[in-house]
Amino acid sequence: MTTATPATPTTVLIVEDDEDIALTLKRMLERQGYAVTWVTTGAEALEAIRAVPHVVLLDLGLPDMDGLDVCRQAREEGYDGGIMILTARSDELDRVVGLDYGADDYLPKPFPIAEMQARVRALARRAARTLAGAPAPADAEATAPPPPATAAPISPSTAQAAPGATGGPGALRVNTAARRVWVGEQELTLTTKEFGVLALLDAERGSVVTRETLMATVWDENWFGSTKTLDVTMGRLRAKLEDAGADVEVVTVRGVGFRLEDDTCAPD
């Protein structure tokens, strides 16, 4: 008789220096079946994130460093799980900056517990798919793991057959299998979300991809956060393509979505 292997619990890292808040969150999440780790400093958080938890609940006002720097550094080191910022900073600019630094969601304190639980569930579902191919924590690499089959469509500009690959120095090539992007001979460094957006736009080059499609495919069909995170990601992607001299541009179709098209003004 074969014994079923127990399911691995979803792991949550709480980064919070307020003991009352942290213990309340920890007890609540543990009752829901999550495996929870709690740390109080940015340095401890970065070390714990290298163990690749599914979800990180991150406070910004940490005693040793700003939580935004923790978020940015975690993404730069290749962490691809869900990051939700829980903070008393409720100003819109703070939310945009948090998303710009790589957070997936932003919930100002005080927050409804039911809403926080729903957002954690949504992030955990996405992270479980995204991290499914991640290496063991001890061997974790600083590159994003491959997404599920539905998250990154096969691009017409994969490494073996890249449109414009024989063109000038601004030719864009997207290799969805290796999750790598080149403009000419220069490889671009993109975040997971930036790559997902570009791969989807490139797969439909010349056609409009709706905001709803981008959010459901690159983020999660049950996304609870603001869609401004898409605009922030798109702004970073445009800047990187422009800085690299790419011969394509991302065009906004107001009220609908975005289209990747050849930049007729690009230098030869």
Description:
- The longest helix has 18 residues, at 113-130.
- Helices cover 35% and strands 19% of the residues.
- The chain is elongated.
- The protein has a five-stranded parallel beta sheet with strand order 2-1-3-4-5, sandwiched between helices.
- By secondary structure, it is an alpha/beta fold.
- It has eight helices and eleven strands.
Task: Provide a concise account of the structure shown.
With 268 residues, the protein is an alpha/beta fold.
Features:
elongated; three-stranded antiparallel β-sheet; alpha/beta; 268 residues; 8 helices
* Count of separate DSSP helical elements: 8
- The SS-based structural class is alpha/beta
In sequence order, what are the helices and strands, one letter per element? EHEHEHEHEHEEEHEHHEE
- Spatial order of the strands forming the largest sheet: 2-1-3-4-5
Largest sheet: 5 strands, parallel
Beta-strand residue fraction: 15-25%
Shape: elongated
Helical content (DSSP H or I, runs of 4+): 25-40%
N-to-C CA distance: 68 Å
What integer value in Å does the Rg equal? 19 Å
Low-confidence stretches: 134-166
The count of DSSP E runs of length 2 or more, i.e. the number of strands, is 11
Mean model confidence by pLDDT: 79
